[in-house]
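Handoff note, outgoing to incoming analyst
You'll be picking up this chain. Sequence as last confirmed:
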Amino acid sequence: MLIYILFVIGFVILIKGADMLVDGSASIARRLGMSQIMIGLTVVAFGTSLPEMIVNIIASFEGSTDIAIGNILGSNVANILLILGVSAIIYPITIKKNTTYREIPFSLLAAIVLGVLANDVLIDYAGASILSTSDGIILLAFFTIFMYYVASITKSEEVSEAVEEEMTLPRSVVFILIGIVGLAVGGKWIVEGAVDISMKVGLSEGFVGLTIVAIGTSLPELATSAMAAMKKKSDIAIGNVVGSNIFNIFWVLGISSIIKPLPFNTTSNEDIGMVILSSVLLFGFLFIGKRQEIQRWQGVMFLIMYGLYMVYLFQRG
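Most recent structure output, in case you need it:
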């Protein structure tokens, strides 16, 4: 029973740790003169992907690679179908042309690149499929290209700085340190709990990673996008989701596979296909009905699809 209690508490500590780390880092970034938009696209985007990253690193070291890969693929599907679905129902999400024609296709490219790199058996007829150290370097190279793009659009936009009450430097440092400890402790408890649940209930680690762990580590994105939709800030709602999907594959899986190569189960190709399908639907919906907008009925469609996907995963085990 204790391990299940720690599993639940682990999510709370993990998410709170990420939140404190982002607040402390953003405060120091403002002191260094970074613009709000740059902070949003780097510090905040990185922060909402930290839960996935910490869980993945711990899972990799403990040999639970199915949880590591399932966590990323499940999170990316949840980001589009669940989080954007909920956000669009709260308030229709208007999307800028840059996001439609550049950032959404880039997130689609991330899923395709992952599919190619992970399938050594199908492409090279190798003995086993694995995300190797060299694959991780390729993923990080794509991530570097994305960050270069972020820097270029930041320079080209007019930025109006919001006046905020700044944290003191010592408090910022304390927030960062507590956040790091929270991420480490919460991540460890989540992985240990997920492995125990999969063993006792008879479900695969991949299933637990794709569902419970993926939804849990996506809670920061859900909270951010839902709140943004309530405040009618569409840029934040969509940018948070698309940016997180890019970070998850290129940054989190890139780092994870460099630290320790990740064996890839070809069953996960179905989940990569679901990530690709979700991204294609997101792109296609922007040209159906009211253009450049995710409408409420489309949000409902996303949620129905996510529900059907969960049923399929449960049947697959």
